[in-house]
Amino acid sequence: MGDQASRLVSQLRNVRWGDSAASLAREARLKEVSSAEARISYRDADGLVWDVYQSDGGIDFISVDIRTSEPVEDLPNSALERIYANFERAFDSFQKATSKILGAPAFVGGFDDAGFPEDQDAVRLALWLVDKARLMLEFKHEGLEFPVRLILVAAR
Predict the structure, then answer these.
(1) Average pLDDT value for residue range 40-59
(2) By the 8 A CB rule, do 138 and 150 touch?
(3) What is the pTM of this model?
(4) Mean pLDDT for the chain overall
(5) Measured between alpha carbons, how far is 138 from 17 in angstroms, rounded to an integer?
(6) What is the per-residue pLDDT for 57?
(7) 93 and 122, same structural domain?
(8) Domain check: are 77 and 14 in the same one?
(9) Each residue of 87-117: pLDDT tens digit?
(10) Which residues are paired to 11 by β-bridges?
């Protein structure tokens, strides 16, 4: 996971926030897969999905799906617990790799912990403050009808 973390962190920490999503896509060699209102979804050479949110002022928010589970809606609790354990290990591994690049995170914790970013929603989150942005590693699961995801977010 170290090489992937290094590549993604390098790309996301160097985002020019005033640029358009199209400009980011050209630089990062992303291929557009869909769009809806302010969000454009791209796929990179490794098959990762990048959701780029923009406004008139340029890029506001980027979310990269690092890992996504299969649907979990019909799984027994024991299977869901195994998926959570696997994602916890992946979170820890990616956090460690990212910390080697950016240093210790400013925050690591869960949704109910003091200091959790109010504009985010995740089971667990690590936050680094970089230049004019926040870089966040998030272990997300919005409900049983959704997959479990590990994402890297860059936000103004």
Answers:
(1) 94
(2) yes
(3) 0.93
(4) 93
(5) 21
(6) 82
(7) yes
(8) no
(9) 999 999 999 999 999 999 999 999 999 999 9
(10) none
Residue 1: the pLDDT is 64
**Domain membership flag for residue 155:** no
In-domain check, residue 89: yes
Residues 73 and 60 in one domain: no
Q: What share of the chain is helix, strand, coil (3-state, %, to 5)?
A: 30, 35, 35
Q: Are residues 4 and 18 in contact, defined by beta-carbon separation less than 8 angstroms? A: no
Q: Which domain holds residue 47?
A: 2-65
Same domain, yes or no, for 73 and 13?
A: no
Residues 41, 7 contacting (CB under 8 angstroms): no
Q: Is 152 a domain residue?
A: no
Domain count, the chain: 2
Place of tokens 């290094």: 6
Same domain? 48 vs 10: yes
Residue 144: predicted pLDDT: 82
User: HSE (CB half, 13 Å, CA atoms) of 154?
Assistant: 22
pLDDT in tens, 133-146: 999 999 999 888 88
